[in-house]
Design goal:
Length: about 425
């Protein structure tokens, strides 16, 4: 018989203790806050950032409103809604209530005077609908529409930045957008919030190459703020770039035709409003003449000559030759910014937009105190500022932005006598 093997007794070992939360050293124990943050959906983080930023901005606005003297728009120490509807908000109010003049007002010299044709119908139409549905007056409804679109823009901006940046940088980009020096206008009776919403959506659709959906978005965007010509140029550059890189990034014939069509459509939208003004008033220069009326107090009434206004402004502010030199330096610096590594990481399409809009401003805009507001569509560049992860850097940038809000409110929004710094 075969000898049976006896089982070898294993030496006694102490029982294995499983780690419990109490036994994990504090240094490696995951914090509840961090775990909760990771479990929070992206949209909730954006909403929290937006809400906190609105509290900060509203506080600054109320502080300034409390010391605001009586002016052409409000009594002394106005409430928030009244204070948020000064300056050009009154023109939007006129459009919402009375529409556009069929007969252009003229000055004593026979030139076209300031009038409602300079203001696109998109924002006042949206406010008018809310007024009809809610029964609220203009100032309250305008603030609500503006604030609501600013939240929508923040949500879309995160999605846009996630196409080109990591989650941390994308979320910090949203924070910078919400606390930027011009962010108070996102809750005023101005069209900027609504326009930036449609612009962000258009850029997101462009990056995703969903060309068909761009048609209605561009139509609404182009009737909210005048920049459809700039977007048409960005789309044209996009088409050329895709054609040149088709060997590594296929560009089928159907997509070529569709992308080219939406570029052409954007160009048509860009000239649609001047044509409408011409048809209604009978004056081919109704829109351009109205826009020129706003620069007349600086340089008098002159014809619109593309790419001259910046140099005219430089000479008006700084004289010759310093004004010319400063404008040339600004142009060169802007071009250089587009090739910085942090900006190049934003991708070619966002850089096309920034370059196109910059060129558009150079062609038609006369720089003065509203320049800051007109630069807001360059906000994708915030993605370049948001890339460094150093907490001291990020804290410092946020604090500078909040200080910038107070500076802009003091310089451009608050009215001090015969104020020459319109926002």
């Amino acid at each position: 018989m075969a000898e049976r093997k006896r089982p070898v007794a294993k030496p006694l070992q102490p029982p294995v203790r499983r780690a419990t939360p109490a036994s994990v050293p504090p240094a490696v124990r995951p914090s509840r806050w961090r775990a909760g943050y990771r479990a929070t959906p992206w949209w909730a983080r954006v909403v929290v950032i937006w809400a906190a930023s609105r509290v900060v901005t509203t506080t600054l606005v109320l502080l300034l409103a409390n010391v605001q003297g009586a002016n052409a728009w409000t009594a002394a120490s106005p409430g928030y809604a009244a204070f948020a509807n000064m300056w050009d908000a009154r023109w939007y109010n006129i459009v919402a209530i009375s529409g556009y003049p069929a007969t252009l007002p003229v000055t004593a010299e026979g030139q076209i005077a300031e009038n409602a044709w300079a203001f696109m119908p998109g924002f006042p139409a949206a406010v008018r609908v809310l007024m009809a549905l809610s029964g609220q007056p203009w100032d309250v409804a305008a603030v609500f529409v503006s604030a609501a679109f600013s939240l929508g823009t923040a949500l879309l901006f995160f999605r846009l930045m996630r196409r080109v940046l990591d989650p941390s940088a994308a979320l910090f980009s949203v924070l910078l957008f919400c606390v930027a020096p011009l962010s108070p206008v996102l809750q005023f009776g101005y069209a900027e919030s609504m326009y930036l919403f449609w612009l962000t959506l258009a850029l997101l659709l462009l990056l995703d190459r969903r060309y068909v959906l761009l048609f209605p978005v561009i139509a609404v965007m182009g009737l909210t703020r005048p920049s459809a010509l700039a977007f048409a140029l960005a789309l044209g550059l996009h088409v050329v770039h895709r054609w040149l890189t088709r060997a590594r990034d296929p560009f089928p014939l159907g997509e070529r035709m569709l992308a080219a069509s939406v570029a052409g459509f954007s160009a048509l939208v860009g000239v649609a409003w001047p044509v409408v003004a011409w048809i209604v008033t009978g004056s081919v220069t109704a829109y351009t003449g109205t826009e020129l009326a706003w620069r007349a107090p600086y340089i008098g009434y002159q014809e619109l000559v593309p790419f001259t206004a910046w140099f005219q402004s430089g000479v008006w502010w700084l004289g010759i030759p310093l004004g010319i030199v400063v404008v040339v330096v600004l142009i060169v610096a802007f071009g250089g910014i587009l090739f910085l590594p942090a900006v190049r990481r934003l991708g070619v399409d966002l850089r096309f937009w920034v370059a196109s809009y910059g060129l558009y401003l150079l062609a038609v805009f006369f720089p003065q105190s509203s320049t800051f507001r007109l630069l807001m569509p360059l906000f994708p560049l915030l993605g370049a500022i948001a890339q460094p992860r150093n907490p001291w850097y990020r804290t410092g940038v946020v604090l500078l932005c909040i200080l910038g809000q107070w500076g802009w409110l003091l310089l451009c929004w608050g009215v001090d006598g015969a104020d020459w710094t319109p926002p």
